[in-house]
Design goal:
Strand content: 5-15%
Low-confidence stretches: none
Largest sheet: 7 strands, mixed
Number of strands: 12
Oligomer: single chain
Bound molecules: pyridoxal-5'-phosphate
CATH class of the largest domain: Alpha Beta
């Protein structure tokens, strides 16, 4: 991303004038184009209630865009409410039988863990692969836990609490060899890391859209690979059916569901957010996800240099390729969170310290300003005393 591009993007994010926003792994602020798309949708709803067929045509355009974004086809994309809903759909769709097992990473996002832990009611064993904080998961992480009763391996693409980018390619290859479904939580990677579901061997991918995709909460995307017909929905609505009755009378003897991912879409979808998504995808595609990844990783390089100079520990990985836009600083939350809030810096408290996360609108100047604020904090006796505690 060049300087002119960054200036144009920053103009789209008024938040950059109000505070130092380093919290996009929590929630990205809305760009102006997304706000305008929402306002246009509201005006259409307010003045003429649609018309709905126009809105639904736009939903299909958004679906095609999301599909292209993941190197999937439109038939493999369903719209959901959020990541959790997508992961729960997956957990209930995989044909699991008592005695089967599922492998997760210990300490991975609870919204994924609970979806599978809920399967314990059906006699499914949930195995947790161990990972040191900040370590990258790869095929070797999972291999010792997989046996002939393993049906699913599931993990976040990017960890929310130390920022490591797990090696999905090697995990996907292992899953393929062992005949295991790979279910991915892409909440922290979609929009900031290029994702090719085919190349990575992903069976199901779920994500919300309120982080890297720049849309307000309430819309999720779900990829289900074509051909996994044995994955069946736990819920049904008219929208899931192969032959929805044109007279709106449900036929008990015709319960075939659609073959495409639409079988996992239940009733009306989040139309305002889908309009917002079209606008945000236009902006993201304009810059390019690879360029966004390059940009946030370069900001990470700059941050790590500052941290080294300041003597502040980085909790997650240092190597490029293992990290992306999330960086956790070994500064204790109790004292530093209020210090950052006092200085108009938006960051998140995390397990290992203070989480800083970048998005396309952040600049090297933001990182320098942040480092200056940390430097000043370290001069305050009460904060310095607590710096770098494990
Ligand atoms: C890895 C990961 N998964 C899921 C979520 C959120 O789940 P949902 O979209 O269901 O709110 C988050 C953070 O909000 C996350 O970091």
């Amino acid at each position: 991303m060049n300087a002119d591009q960054l200036t144009t993007i920053r103009r789209q994010f008024p938040v950059t004038k109000r505070m130092l926003y380093l919290d996009s792994a929590h929630q990205t602020p809305m760009p102006t184009s997304v706000r305008e798309a929402l306002e246009e949708f509201i005006a259409e709803g307010h003045q003429m209630a649609g018309p709905k067929p126009v809105w639904l045509r736009r939903v299909e355009q958004a679906r095609a865009r999301v599909a292209a974004f993941l190197n999937a086809t439109s038939s493999e994309i369903a719209f959901t409410k959020n990541t959790s809903e997508g992961l729960n759909i997956a957990a209930n769709a995989v044909p699991l039988q008592a005695g089967d097992n599922v492998v997760l990473i210990e300490g991975d996002h609870p919204n994924n863990a609970y979806a599978w832990l809920n399967m314990k009611r059906k006699g499914i064993e949930v195995r947790f692969a161990k990972l040191r904080d900040g370590e990258i998961a790869n095929a070797q992480t999972f291999a010792p836990y997989i046996d002939e009763r393993t049906k699913v391996v599931t993990l976040s693409h990017v960890s929310f609490h130390a920022g490591q980018v797990h090696d999905l390619a090697s995990i996907g290859k292992l899953c393929k060899e062992r005949g295991v479904y790979l279910v991915v939580d892409a909440m922290q990677s979609v929009g900031v890391i290029p994702i090719d579901v085919k190349a990575l061997g992903v069976s199901v991918l779920a994500a919300g859209t309120h982080k890297g995709l720049l849309v307000p909460q309430g819309l999720g995307i779900l990829y289900v690979a074509d051909g996994l017909d044995e994955l069946q929905p736990a819920y049904l609505a008219m929208s899931s059916m192969a032959r929805p009755p044109s007279d709106y009378i449900a036929r008990p003897d015709d319960l075939d569901v659609r073959k495409d991912a639409g079988r996992f879409e239940f009733g009306n979808v989040n139309l305002p957010d889908l309009h917002a998504l079209s606008a945000s995808l236009e902006m993201i595609e304009d810059v390019g996800v690879a360029a966004i990844q390059q940009h946030v990783t370069a900001l990470g390089d700059c941050l790590i240099e500052h941290l080294d100079r300041l003597g502040v520990r980085l909790v997650g990985p240092r190597d490029r390729g293992q990290r992306n836009h999330i960086y956790v600083l070994g500064l204790p939350v109790e004292t530093w969170a209020t210090y950052f809030a006092r200085n108009d810096v938006r960051v998140s408290p995390e397990r290992g310290g203070i989480r800083v996360s970048f998005a396309l609108f952040n600049s090297a100047d933001d990182v320098d300003r942040f480092a200056e604020i940390v430097r000043n904090g370290l001069k305050e006796g009460s904060l310095a005393k607590f710096a770098n505690m494990d």
